[in-house]
Structure formats: C-alpha cells, structure tokens
Amino acid sequence: MGVDLVPPVHPDDVVLDLADSDAVTALVRSERPDRVVHLAGAVFEPADAAGRRRLLGLNVGLTLVLVEALAEVGDCPRFLLAGSCAVYGVPPGADGLAREDDPVAPVLYYGFTKAAQETLASTYHRRGALDLRVGRSFNLTGPGEPAHFVTGTVARQVASGAGVVRLGNIDTVRDFIDVRDAAVAYATILDRGVPGAVYNVGRGVPVTVEDQIRAVLAAAGGSCRVERDESRIKAVDVPRIYADVARLRGLGWAPAHDLESTARDVLAAGREG
C-alpha cells in the first residue's frame, strides 16, 4: 500500500495527508503494517524564514505524526527512513568521500531537517517503537525526474529544442544514482540491513554536474551548449561529495544502471512530457 496526497496510481494506494494525525493513526491501526518505507517530505533549500518553517514542518513534522501513530499502535514495524547525504555537509576528507561514520554536520537548512528527521526516528527506535534502518540517498536521477532537479531540467530543455542550457554550479562533484537502483537499495536495506544502522545509497562514483549534463546532451545527439549562469550560483554549496557504498554492497546490492543508460532514459521521459 502506498500513501500520497495525489490520486493513487496503484489500486491499493490511498490518498492521505500525513499532517492529519487522527487519519494516520486510524490507517495504521487498520492496516497494522509490519514494514514501513518513509519517503514523504520535501527537497528544496528555503530562501526565507517562512520557507524554513515550511520545510521543517514537511520533513520533521510529518515524520513525527507517522512515528507517533506507529508507537501508539505498538507493533514495532521494520522502518526504512529515506535520508539524505545532505546531513554530512562538507565531508572531512579532501576527496569528498562520505562514510556513514563521518560527523553529521549539515551546511544547508535542508540537511539540518534531514538530520533532525534521523534523530527523531532514532529516538523512537531506542524506545522500541520502530525497528529502524536509514538509507542516506545521494543525488537521485532517472525517468520522471522533476524539472527543478538538474538532470530533469536539462532533459526538458533539450526535448523542447533549446540550443543553450544555462546552469549555475556545474563544476561541483556529486554521486548520481538511478532512482530505480535506489529503490532496490531501499528494499535491500529493509530486508537485510542491521537494525539502527545507516547505509549510504549512491553509486560510489564521483561525477561533476557538467559531466552529468553532457551525458544527457550526448544521448540527445544534438549541439546544445552548456553555459554558466552567474545568477544561478548558490551562495552556500558543497563543492564535492560522493558515497562510500561498501556497507550497502556488503548486503549484496549493486547498481544496474550506468550514467549513460540513465541519461538516455531521462531524456526519453522528458520528450514524452
């Protein structure tokens, strides 16, 4: 069963607002789930106090409603929290490799909300209300990627016939993982992960944002140019971060998609609208 704010795609899905604590508790009591994958929240960096309050409510407030409902029902389900590499901030090593045991030191407010989300879920784990595992995702990409993410933006611009793609921080280094590989990783962590443990969810391959963009352009076979737009440069950013995925691979997981195949699929989805 899936729970979302939008009309269901699958027949077992339900429309529900996680902010409605009574409705969430009623659903948990009715369904008595033995496994929960918590993906709800928002991904953006707020520009003002109102945005910060909104992001905190979405990423931490909704999590609180859910874990309180699970604690009240009392079945202690296996619980996978979809976390974020943003909790690391700037990795301590010059190479940008982030390990699960590195300090939690976010530099973005989004990263702070994800760290708070982890702390909240861990508190309920220690209380015996959840059987928690955390999957800290790196840069998700793939078919259907929203337009406000970099690869989705480029795919849609290329699909619309744009001759120039203007972007900000294209020299930063990230770890792009196909969302389909991430979904398998989440399932693997839920099945085989150690209770209370954290797992990086990435490919373990450092790639510049520019190289990611050029993979989409190469898939398009066109002559679209990439230009740096100073107005899009982020004032606060992490210059280099990618995942140590030894712990996840130790569970038997491996990615099935490389940079080029994912780029082709993102572009195809962008052309379909």
Protein architecture, described:
There is one protein chain. By secondary structure, this protein is α/β, with parallel strands linked by helices. It has 2 domains: 135 residues, Rossmann fold, CATH 3.40.50.720; 98 residues, Alpha-Beta Complex (UDP-galactose 4-epimerase, domain 1), CATH 3.90.25. The chain has 8 helices and 14 strands. The strands form 6 sheets. It has a 4-stranded parallel beta sheet with strand order 3-4-6-11, sandwiched between helices. A two-stranded parallel sheet has the order 1-2. Strands 5-14 form a two-stranded parallel ribbon. Strand 3, helix 2 and strand 4 form a beta-alpha-beta unit. The two termini are 27 Å apart.
Q: What is the radius of gyration computed over CA atoms, rounded to a whole number of angstroms?
A: 19 Å
Total of helices: 8
CATH superfamily caption of the largest domain:
NAD(P)-binding Rossmann-like Domain
Strand share of the residues?
A: 15-25%
In one word, what is the shape? globular
What is the number of E strands? Answer: 14
List the keywords.
273 residues; 2 domains; 4-stranded parallel beta sheet; 8 helices; 18% strand; globular
